């Protein structure tokens, strides 16, 4: 979710769910350790629980980056072994690490030695010509022996040669059954499934089948209200009332005002809010008003309030039309 789940996105998602574990976009260890880009660790305390996802392949450098993440206040440090991006491959990050479980184990061991918070791993079931039924158990065994007890498994292979990152999200077939088999083989590990999950119904089915967790990525981004608003009740058993999508938008106004006072731009926040009313009458006018207006120099919270009012008028008109 590089360039997507930044701190503005996570703040919005936390308004929709109190309990869901949020992940940062992948931050590379070299950027933190060698580049000194510590601003990439910025987050709001309201985001907790939140995990820092790191990219890298040098154990010592990852250990330093993990320590920086712990010092910044993150609840978990996650090593990405699943991203198929060309940018990531060139730095020996992400899914290419599936080819070297020994190195991943060394990285995890070094990171665990450097921090007190939990170190976790996100991986694929394999890459390129690897046979997932052989590769995945070995990967989990070796990295688990290094002390990692929580894995999120994207249930697709990644084709590093011949497919774009976008194609790697759709073309390789999903193999949920293999992930389920790993649940039976590794009873001591906490295993979550990722890839192709678009609804809470699917998430509940995976949990009922014995998996320990479910990671939802793009669906939670493009339709956050549908995925997140009811997650506290259905997944975590939290019966406290939550915010509606409309209330969450209003709750973003003070956050937006604070962002603007520090020199930020409205579009940096509202680009993550475009899908708030996905599938509802008025969603199109909401998206259009934000998309067209948020980049203007004088754009501020008033635009969000105007877009919300336009959405609500469209809702009322649709209700009147249905009644007639």
UniProtKB/TrEMBL annotation:
Its EC number is 1.3.1.91. Pfam families: Dus. It is an enzyme of class 1 (oxidoreductase). The active site is at 83 (proton donor). The keyword Nucleotide-binding applies. It catalyses: 5,6-dihydrouridine(20) in tRNA + NAD(+) = uridine(20) in tRNA + NADH + H(+); 5,6-dihydrouridine(20) in tRNA + NADP(+) = uridine(20) in tRNA + NADPH + H(+); 5,6-dihydrouridine(20a) in tRNA + NADP(+) = uridine(20a) in tRNA + NADPH + H(+); 5,6-dihydrouridine(20a) in tRNA + NAD(+) = uridine(20a) in tRNA + NADH + H(+). The record marks 80, 166, 169, 284, 287 as: Interacts with tRNA. SUPFAM superfamilies: FMN-linked oxidoreductases. Keywords: Flavoprotein, FMN, NADP, Nucleotide-binding, Oxidoreductase, RNA-binding, tRNA processing, tRNA-binding. Residues 1-309 form the DUS-like FMN-binding domain. One of its GO terms (molecular function) is tRNA-dihydrouridine20a synthase activity. CDD domains: DUS_like_FMN (cd02801). It comes from the Bacteria. Belongs to the Dus family. DusA subfamily. Belongs to the dus family. PANTHER family: FMN-LINKED OXIDOREDUCTASES SUPERFAMILY PROTEIN. Catalyzes the synthesis of 5,6-dihydrouridine (D), a modified base found in the D-loop of most tRNAs, via the reduction of the C5-C6 double bond in target uridines. Specifically modifies U20 and U20a in tRNAs. This is tRNA-dihydrouridine(20/20a) synthase. It comes from Pseudooceanicola sediminis.
